[in-house]
């Protein structure tokens, strides 16, 4: 499924983000930047040691990555040239600023991508795994944040939502279909 918005393709695909052929993939990391489970573990396994080495260096320089912010590393052995690591919020009932923080993840990642001249980027469904964010609400926030960026002047050609599970895939297809 895809839509063209203000000159960029917004795509929804089902699959494994480590196999993405886009210039950049986004990692749903944790604040330590030292790797973890879920998509984070998969990206470090597939991308190899160089990604972790750069994460360790960033961590020593600035002490990790706060929730809603993003850092960039090499893509290592991945097809993607870069990985942007962002830290989603842990779901805590919905009244602890989770939506703002989750939206910030997508906005921070896109800002960093633009600063690096990256025109194509794949996002996983940040915070909807171990961090427990309800998938329908997370989809709403993610699509709102990305379409907000695309509504302004931007340098993107393709932005992809890579949904690993079919529940997310169906939610994204429905919502992007209505844009
Ligand atoms: P978080 O801690 O932000 O919740 P998780 O990695 O646990 O991060 O889950 C985030 C999302 O990533 C979930 O929807 C999960 O299904 C998905 N996911 C897990 N592995 C992959 C993968 N290889 N490619 C794309 N998405 C994945």
UniProtKB/TrEMBL annotation:
UniProt cross-references to SMART domains, sorted A to Z: A1pp
Q: Domain Macro: where?
A: 1-179
A Pfam family in this protein?
Answer: Macro
PROSITE patterns attached to this UniProt entry:
MACRO (PS51154)
Q: Which InterPro entries match?
A: Macro_dom, Macro_dom-like
The transmembrane residues are: none
> Sorted alphabetically, which PANTHER family does this protein's record hold?
GANGLIOSIDE INDUCED DIFFERENTIATION ASSOCIATED PROTEIN 2-RELATED (PTHR11106), MACRO DOMAIN-CONTAINING PROTEIN (PTHR11106:SF27)
Full protein name: O-acetyl-ADP-ribose deacetylase
Q: Which organism is it from?
A: Cohnella ginsengisoli
């Amino acid at each position: 499924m895809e839509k063209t918005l203000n000159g960029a393709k917004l795509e929804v695909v089902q699959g494994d983000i480590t196999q993405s052929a886009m210039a950049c993939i986004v990692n749903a990391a944790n604040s330590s930047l030292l790797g973890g489970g879920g998509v984070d573990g998969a990206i470090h396994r597939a991308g190899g040691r160089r990604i972790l080495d750069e994460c360790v260096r960033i961590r020593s320089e600035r002490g990790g990555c706060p929730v809603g912010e993003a850092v960039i590393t090499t893509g290592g052995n991945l097809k993607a040239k870069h990985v942007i690591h962002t830290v989603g919020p842990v779901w805590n009932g919905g009244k602890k600023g989770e939506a703002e923080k989750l939206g910030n993840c997508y906005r921070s990642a896109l800002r960093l991508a633009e600063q690096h001249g990256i025109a194509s980027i794949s996002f996983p469904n940040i915070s909807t795994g171990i961090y427990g964010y309800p998938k329908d609400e997370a989809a709403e926030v993610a699509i709102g944040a990305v379409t907000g960026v695309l509504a302004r002047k931007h340098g993107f050609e393709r932005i992809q939502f890579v949904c690993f599970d079919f529940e997310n895939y169906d939610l994204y297809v429905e919502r992007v279909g209505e844009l």
